[in-house]
Amino acid sequence: MESRIIPLGATALHVGVTGRGRDVVVLTGGPGCVQYLERDEIAPRDHRAWYPEPRGVGRSGGGPHTMEEAIADLEGIRAAVGIATWIVVGHSWGCDLAVRYAVEHPQAVTAVVGIAGRGPQRDRTWSEAYEAGKATEPVVDIDWVPEVHAALSDSFTDWIHRADLWSGLAACRVPMHFIAAGDDIRPPWPLAQLAALVPRGRFSTVPGVPHDFWSTHPEVWTETVTNACTAS
Within a 10 A sphere around the Cβ of 218, how many other Cβ atoms? Predict the structure, then answer.
């Protein structure tokens, strides 16, 4: 894994890069978590994978920011390293960021692979199922920055309240493959709805794995992401 520092205005962001092949940018969850997927052993095979660490988190400069700024950072990184288009892989909240990025910058995104995301909704039954299952979820220790989490969460809420949210999704022709973890405590129906809404959507499930199967089942994660990127 090569470590790069990408200057963006007054801020410098850390980006890891590994492998060779078609370009893939990998987004982590939280929001506000460190780049926990930046590991050679779980990188998609036969691809060149980029791992940006969010602004204000870990090795990246800056601080609390909005989804708009997070997307601008992705575009700034893409321009700085000279990539025309890339596949966007997002885990958990990173899936939601990937979807918005594709809607707003379709010319930059070859495809979206969204894994174990929540989707742009606020539903009481979803939240109740999530809260009921929290005690049974495998514990994976991930560093995160509460201030960044709060700012991005507020920005996410603003985004899902936009009047043009659903029309924008329905008009986006970027291929999107949404993948649920079969043993995730997060109900998968929002991902299935997204797959049915976007013109080139697909939904599938990886059975027998929890939300953070990149940690608990790394071989399954690598195979899942590699196959999804190769098919994109």
Answer: 13
Could you give the CA distance from residue 31 to residue 144 in angstroms, rounded to a whole number? 8
**C-beta of residue 178 within 8 angstroms of C-beta of residue 114:** yes
Domains and CATH numbers, the chain: 2-231 (3.40.50.1820)
Q: DSSP per residue over 139-194, as a string?
A: P----B-HHHHHHHHHHHHHHHT-TTHHHHHHH--S-EEEEEETT-SS-SHHHHHH
Q: Is residue 213 classed exposed, middle or buried when 0-12, 13-18 and 19+ CB atoms within 10 A define those classes?
A: buried
- 116 vs 4, 62, 63, 136, 230, CA distance in Å? 28, 27, 26, 17, 19
Q: What are the pLDDT digits (tens) for 103-139?
A: 999 999 999 999 999 999 889 999 999 999 999 999 9
Q: Can you tell me the distance from the alpha carbon of 175 to that of 13, in angstroms, rounded to the nearest whole number?
A: 28
